[in-house]
Amino acid sequence: MLPESILREAQSEFFELSGSGMSLLEMSHRSPLYDEIHEGARARSKSVFEVPDEFEVLFIQGGAMLQFSMVPMNFLADDVSGAYVDSGAWASKALADARMYGEAYAAWDGSDVSPSRMPDQGEVEIRPDTRYLHVTSNETIGGVRMVEWPEVDIPLIGDMSSDYMSRPIPWDRFDLVYGGVQKNLGPAGMAVVFVRRSILEETSKHLGTYLRYDIHADNRSLFNTPPVFTIWMTGKMLSWIESEGGLAEMERRTNQRAAKVYDAIDSSGGYYTNPVAVRDRSLTNVVFNLANAELETRFVAQAAKNDLVNLKGHRSVGGVRASLYNAMPMAGVDALVAFMDDFQAGNV
Ligand SMILES: *Cc1c(COP(=O)(O)O)cnc(C)c1O
What we know:
The chain is α/β, with parallel strands linked by helices. The protein has helices spanning 4-14, 32-48, 63-75, 89-98, 213-218, 228-244, 246-266, 293-305, 330-346, and strands spanning 55-60, 81-86, 104-109, 130-136, 138-139, 144-145, 156-159, 174-180, 191-196, 285-288, 320-323. The strands form three sheets. It has a seven-stranded mixed β-sheet, with helices on both faces. A two-stranded antiparallel ribbon has the order 5-6. A two-stranded antiparallel ribbon has the order 10-11.
């Protein structure tokens, strides 16, 4: 979701931007007017995410999935490998891509763990000569969140696509953090990547230029033509987050939204069930099941009739999934919870 105020603001500015005689979509990305938008979005990414100065922010097209390749391409070498917490569908994809470029292994495998959860401290096994440990802070499909960051003595790299801006990031533990913007920060079209500046000298230089983190950093993410519309909208979303109270307020809302839906599940007497260990329940993707697939289909269809849409679980797992990203208003959560009660009463 995007806040309605942003969509309307963009609509009013779309045809002609700031008396320039043209739309943003027609403008040179080297023009002063665009530069202001670009620099504003960059600065706000750092301030709203509360990122320390040691990090550079990059806007890179290709979404989070290009980062599945860029991370190993830039960080792996013949003498070092990449460790992955294989916590679910997205982590597995990241690991599979890393194996195309070098030595990568699962430092913890959660595929047969029930209920689903993240690793406990001490379960993550790091081999010698490992360059980084890749973690997925929130498994969007499984609805599992990493609550305790693994305590290992190598740098962490994090895919935070589905819980960006839902909680503070422990920057001192990370060398690189990335996320596609389309879930929590804007429309599709790029990833926001935060990279520790000191490691840019060590990243691989034997790559196509677009694939090098240092090139993006040296060129303020203007090495090639950037996705100007996505950056413009993301800048607006970051301003909105700022004006609503910033990270602390987003975290408070995240906790409140999730608590309401989990309360509805837990107080349903087993009518709704959640397959995740309580500690690791996702706060942004609440997944739940009903007694059988037929009832779940009816739930999703009836919800849609009540204007509650996009509740179908991912096609690989089925069930129901409520994605509660930053722009989701509390009224939307309240409507879902009320619907869950009504549906249960009418379908026993
Ligand atoms: C959505 C998602 C992705 C894929 O993002 P794209 O921007 O579509 O490439 C990767 N990782 C996680 C955790 C996601 O939720």
